[in-house]
Design goal:
Blueprint lengths: L19 E3 L2 E3 L3 H7 L4 E5 L4 E4 L1 H7 L10 H4 L1 E3 L11 H4 L1 H8 L3 E9 L2 E11 L5 E8 L1
Antiparallel strand pairs: 1-2, 3-4, 3-8, 5-6, 6-7, 7-8
């Protein structure tokens, strides 16, 4: 049996810097860097739904290239229904968890089908709003 490692008190840990100004929009500092460097499939949106950062694994998962950064999320992915026809849904901002998190300021989670390019796949998506409506972070997993 391995010994348990003792955690240091929170006060002893380095503080996380809180804000960064990117194009005049305040964001929690380090989010863009952390998302870009994450092993997980993550993306960062600003308060308007524009992609500010995409992890490599998210780019591969969704088939996005570097040109996607700076675009509106709904301009690079299309939310479609779960039928074989994969018809676009009428209210994609409600269906897509990070956009719902931006609109409500609350955690959003859901199963969604996205079309990027020619293919449509299902994803479990969690959207987490950042403080002061600055944006949202999303985690995606193909299902």
């Amino acid at each position: 049996m391995l010994p348990l490692r003792r955690l240091e008190p929170a006060a002893a840990q380095a503080p996380v810097a809180r804000t960064l100004h990117l194009d005049g929009t305040p964001l929690l500092e380090d989010w863009a860097t952390r998302v870009r460097e994450a092993a997980e499939a993550m993306l960062l949106l600003d308060g308007a739904g524009r992609l500010l950062a995409v992890s490599d694994s998210c780019g591969v998962l969704l088939g996005l290239d570097a040109a996607a950064v700076g675009a509106m999320l709904l301009d690079v992915v299309e939310v479609v229904d779960f039928t074989t026809a994969a018809v676009p849904v009428p209210d994609p901002d409600v269906q897509l968890a990070p956009l719902r998190a931006l609109a409500t300021g609350r955690l959003g989670r859901g199963l969604v089908r996205l079309r990027t390019g020619l293919s449509a796949r299902s994803y479990d998506v969690v959207g987490i709003p950042l403080s002061d409506g600055a944006g949202a972070v999303a985690f995606l997993a193909a299902v």
